[in-house]
Design goal:
It is built from 8 helices and 11 strands. It is α+β, with helices and mostly antiparallel strands and 207 residues long.
């Protein structure tokens, strides 16, 4: 049924899959590419709430919560995304217990991640948060079987939105990490050279 009802859409880097404060038309499953889930606050600053990788669903929380997206989904690189219309989604939630239970488990995981992020924003200095964000990028988009250092192309604005600080602060701290031999940079490309040391910095405050 899913194969018959779904459609496949392609998005270029920087293009929105859906936008904040718009009506939910269905749910999306990422087939290929990297996506950020972000929200613009009253200060007009963007805050990245979640990083999404292939195989993950997006847009489902808004579908369950009332039909309006509270955040935007934007391609960090060229992406291929499958789309399932709202009617079929509602039918699945109502008629398939396993599907509903899986969504509940996803929601519980997202709540746990949000709680940890709140604690980090409240208690961790920016340096530790940045180290944690770099490790998170590696855990989300890295390939375990690849021995080469993890590398990703990501604008400084996106790194700042993920950490919850200013772009200038991120640039300064990345320069410090580079001088310490923890990372290498080339334009927007960031390469993690010493993930273990970055992890130690990120977990210095116990979470």
């Amino acid at each position: 049924m899913l194969a018959e009802q779904k459609s496949v859409q392609r998005y270029q880097r920087g293009q929105s899959i859906y936008q904040q404060d718009t009506k939910v038309m269905g749910i999306h499953c990422v087939h290929e590419g990297k996506i950020k889930i972000a929200r613009v606050g009253r200060d007009n600053k963007e805050h990245i709430l979640q990083l999404v990788r292939p195989g993950e669903l997006i847009g489902w929380r808004a579908l369950l919560a009332g039909g309006i997206h509270s955040s935007s989904a934007v391609a960090l690189e060229d992406c291929t995304v499958c789309f399932l219309p709202r009617v079929e989604c509602v039918s699945l939630v109502q008629g398939n217990k396993q599907f509903s239970n899986n969504l509940l488990q996803l929601m519980a995981n997202i709540i746990g991640i949000a709680e940890n992020k709140l604690l980090e924003l409240a208690y961790k200095p920016v340096r530790e948060r940045l180290a944690g964000a770099l490790v998170l990028l590696q855990q989300t988009y890295g390939t375990p079987e690849v021995a080469e250092p993890f590398s990703i192309v990501l604008a400084r604005e996106d790194v700042a939105a993920l950490v919850g600080t200013a772009k200038e602060t991120v640039s300064r701290l990345l320069s410090e990490f580079k001088e310490e031999g923890l990372i290498a940079t080339q334009g927007s490309r960031i390469t993690l050279l010493k993930v273990q040391q970055l992890t130690q910095i990120a977990t210095r405050y116990g979470f």
